[in-house]
């Protein structure tokens, strides 16, 4: 993941201490997102309303007679468009009895900003007067400040402005950009100040009163019932359209359906429609922006169902490909973007992440996705348009490998401000030797060699399709040379496993972690070694019972509460499961999918970025990681990748063929439909059904014609 640290108490201090994940609720629209507690309040403790990586609302507290109402329930709508909290009043003294006024507090994000509706219903027999106070504030903190980075200097907080019943809070940054928050109300407050608005709401017996508030980074309109309903309907339509794109899944299991629906709704929430096409932002709250690695893996997870997302990811990453060398940004010609930020600190160069390229794996994964997209769609036009970017990316890989004494793809940051570790486990302490000593670069990660191997093979396939057999042959040879190098330098025969990395002195880090599962995903190991890797991944050392640990429990530095040294990441487990399935280990893939499904049930169907890697105990749920993103794109996509692996499903769009190899279904599912699966210029439905101890696959074409589906049971 992005510029992360090892644990909530790391020396870098990049992690505030927010409320537990189960009490955080989020909405997102384009480059704006909001994180609140269950009451719908914001206290600035890691939550807030953010726009372009700046917190434009750091406090929002609704109080009645100075107290919080009593919370009844909080939930997102099914499509993630609305967030609603139900509350009831506490004693109001001579203004009304306790428990008679129901408050329905709903939020929606629109293009205008955050819109809120407070619906008050008096179920009592006497009139009630609600002395309501809305407190607000904006610290205009950069997202990196919110995460804990200290700034020696900040810009100027402007005095509040009042106009037409609205309040404008402003801040002029050191980048000379004036940022503002406009707060407006549907009815005039009885008192209005720079940090609060007060209302006296009289409600007769049986009466319903509503108030509307807006919080915008620009000029807000006048809140009203009509305006709220219009914007809420537009948000629902947008998210439902994203949700419905691509093939649909439906099974015989109600709980399994709920999991898939929540996962796809979260992917719809996190997807932003850029000029280049749809793009999944990484996660909320810390990574609600464009990340290269996260988006590519999310696209790979969803490609079989929705190729449009992969096309959008490829187009955007090609458009932001590095063209120059910068040690500060860890960029070099041909490299693919790691991360972008729009906040003040990125603009001033206080952090390198305004546009940062410090990910060693993003560039080969870009090529892997391009090859997978071709295999799935046969879309020659898109590949032709991407070809210059693909060649530039491959050229960077070749140059980097050729500069390595062992012929491996390595990384070493250019400046101390960049990421010390530049694979997906990018915390400071994630790569080390068997005795716990940290490594010094250049570092060659085992899974990155697998990505590079797959990138060469993808480019060889594409070159062959484009009529260039010479390049195809050369790149196939490079792939084979890299495969041999991995087998020679990383394999540990006594462990039956691959080491995690090779350090700058060409010494193997003999550490057993989840990374070799990614080698299975790209098909690098021999079948014999793959079988041994699967056995180790499914052993109690790595398999926690809730998924694959990032680090084996017998290894130095193991800590089930550490970010990368013992926790469980759903996307990582999904890649391991898909890799096992690639080598025919469907049973192991189903076992891991069952574990992740049961985890999702414990987390109310929304998988977090990660959770702790404690061993599963009878009757106990998985243990939350305190500052995990929720939702997270590649966690939401994890069940889709695992399901494809279990089904043994491969779609060859270029040859107009579908292959199903020895399909398995998750234990709780007896029947599964994959409906409206795009297949060239037609769509088909695949029905999978458990028959005895086997699973049958039956295709149904929408046009009634014969479907070229090859099934091996």
Give a written overview of the molecule:
- Residues 1-22 have low confidence and may be disordered.
- It is globular, with a radius of gyration of 26 Å.
- Helix 5 packs across helix 7 and helix 8 (380-402) packs across helix 9.
- It is α+β, with helices and mostly antiparallel strands.
- Helices cover 30% and strands 25% of the residues.
- It has 16 helices and 32 strands.
- The protein folds into three domains: 21-238, Beta-galactosidase, Chain A, domain 5 (Distorted Sandwich), CATH 2.70.98; 245-657, Glycosyltransferase (Alpha/alpha barrel), CATH 1.50.10; 658-712, no CATH class.
- The strands form nine sheets. The chain has an eight-stranded antiparallel sheet, with helices on one face. The chain has a four-stranded antiparallel sheet with strand order 1-2-3-4, with no helix packed on it. Strands 5-10-15-14 form a four-stranded antiparallel sheet, with no helix packed on it.
- A hairpin with a 5-residue loop joins strand 12 (166-172) and strand 13.
Briefly summarize what is shown.
The chain is of the alpha+beta class. The protein is 30% helix and 25% strand.
- How much β-strand is present in the residues? 15-25%
Major sheet details: 8 strands, antiparallel
Domain count: 3
Q: Span between N and C termini?
A: 38 Å
Helix fraction by DSSP (H/I, runs of at least 4): 25-40%
Can you tell me the CATH topology of the largest domain? Glycosyltransferase
Structural class: alpha+beta
CATH architecture of the largest domain: Alpha/alpha barrel
Looking at the structure, what is the overall shape?
globular
User: Helix count, per DSSP?
Assistant: 16
What is the CATH C level class of the largest domain, in words? Mainly Alpha
Average of pLDDT: 93
Q: Low-confidence runs (pLDDT<50, min 5 residues)?
A: 1-22
Count all strands and give the number. 32
What Rg do the Cα atoms give?
26 Å
Largest sheet: spatial strand order: 6-7-8-9-16-13-12-11
């Amino acid at each position: 993941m992005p510029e992360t640290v090892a644990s909530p108490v790391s020396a870098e201090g990049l992690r505030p201490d927010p409320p537990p994940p189960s009490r955080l609720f989020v909405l997102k629209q384009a480059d704006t997102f909001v994180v609140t507690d269950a009451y719908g309040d914001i206290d600035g403790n890691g939550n807030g309303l953010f726009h372009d990586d700046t917190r434009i609302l750091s406090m929002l507290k609704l109080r009645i007679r100075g107290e919080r109402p009593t919370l009844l329930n909080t939930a997102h709508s099914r499509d993630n468009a609305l967030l609603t909290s139900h509350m009831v009043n506490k004693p109001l003294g001579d203004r009304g009895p306790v428990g008679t006024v129901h408050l329905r507090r709903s939020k929606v994000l629109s293009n205008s900003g955050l819109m809120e509706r407070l619906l008050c219903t008096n179920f009592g027999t006497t009139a009630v007067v609600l002395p309501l106070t809305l407190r607000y504030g904006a610290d205009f903190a950069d997202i990196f400040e919110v995460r804990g980075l200290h700034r020696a200097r900040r810009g100027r907080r402007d005095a509040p402005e009042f106009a037409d019943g609205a309040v404008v809070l402003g801040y002029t940054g050191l980048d000379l950009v004036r940022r503002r928050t406009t707060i407006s109300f549907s009815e005039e407050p009885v008192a209005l100040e720079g940090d609060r608005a007060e209302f006296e709401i009289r409600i007769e017996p049986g009466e319903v009163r509503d108030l509307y508030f807006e919080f915008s980074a620009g000029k807000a309109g006048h809140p009203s019932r009509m305006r709220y309903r219009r914007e809420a309907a537009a948000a629902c339509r947008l998210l439902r359209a994203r949700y419905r794109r691509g093939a649909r899944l439906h099974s015989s299991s109600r709980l399994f359906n709920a999991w898939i629906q929540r996962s796809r709704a979260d992917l719809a929430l996190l997807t932003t429609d850029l000029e280049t096409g749809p793009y999944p932002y990484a996660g909320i709250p810390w990574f609600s922006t464009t990340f290269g690695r996260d988006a590519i893996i999310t696209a790979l997870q969803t490609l079989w169902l929705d190729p449009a997302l992969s096309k959008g990811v490829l187009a955007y990453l090609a458009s932001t490909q590095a063209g120059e060398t910068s040690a500060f940004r860890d960029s070099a010609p041909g490299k693919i973007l790691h991360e972008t930020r729009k906040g003040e600190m990125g603009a001033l160069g206080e952090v390198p992440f305004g546009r940062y390229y410090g990910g060693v794996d993003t560039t080969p994964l870009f090529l892997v996705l391009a090859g997978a997209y071709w295999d799935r769609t046969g879309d020659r036009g898109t590949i032709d348009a991407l070809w210059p970017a693909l060649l530039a990316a491959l050229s960077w890989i070749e140059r980097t490998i050729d500069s390595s004494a062992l012929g491996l793809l390595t990384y070493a940051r250019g400046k101390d401000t960049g990421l010390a570790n530049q694979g997906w486990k990018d915390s400071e302490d994630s790569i080390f030797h068997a005795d716990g000593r940290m490594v010094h670069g250049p570092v060659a990660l085992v899974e990155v060699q697998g990505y590079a191997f797959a990138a060469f093979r993808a480019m060889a396939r594409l070159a062959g399709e484009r009529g260039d057999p010479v390049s195809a042959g050369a790149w196939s040879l490079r792939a084979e040379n890299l495969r041999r190098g991995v087998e020679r330098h990383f394999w540990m025969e006594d462990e039956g496993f691959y080491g995690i990395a090779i350090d700058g002195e060409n010494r193997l880090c003999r550490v057993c972690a989840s990374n070799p599962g990614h080698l299975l995903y790209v098909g690098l190991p021999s079948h014999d070694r793959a079988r041994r890797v699967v056995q180790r991944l499914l052993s109690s050392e790595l398999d926690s019972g809730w998924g694959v640990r990032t680090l084996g429990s017998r290894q130095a530095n193991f800590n089930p509460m550490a970010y990368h040294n013992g926790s469980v990441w759903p996307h990582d487990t999904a890649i391991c499961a898909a890799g096992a399935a690639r080598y025919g280990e469907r049973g192991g893939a189903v076992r891991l999918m069952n574990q992740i499904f049961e985890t999702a049930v414990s987390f109310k169907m929304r998988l977090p970025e990660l959770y702790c890697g404690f061993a599963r105990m009878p009757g106990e749920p998985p243990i939350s990681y305190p500052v995990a993103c929720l939702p997270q794109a590649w966690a939401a996509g994890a069940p889709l990748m695992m399901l494809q692996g279990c089904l043994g499903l491969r779609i060859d769009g270029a040859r107009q063929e579908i292959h199903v190899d020895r399909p398995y279904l998750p234990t709780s599912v007896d029947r599964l439909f994959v409906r409206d699966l795009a297949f060239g210029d037609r769509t088909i439905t695949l029905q999978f059904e458990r028959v005895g101890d086997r699973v049958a696959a039956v295709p149904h074409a929408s046009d009634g014609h014969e479907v070229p589906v090859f099934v091996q049971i």
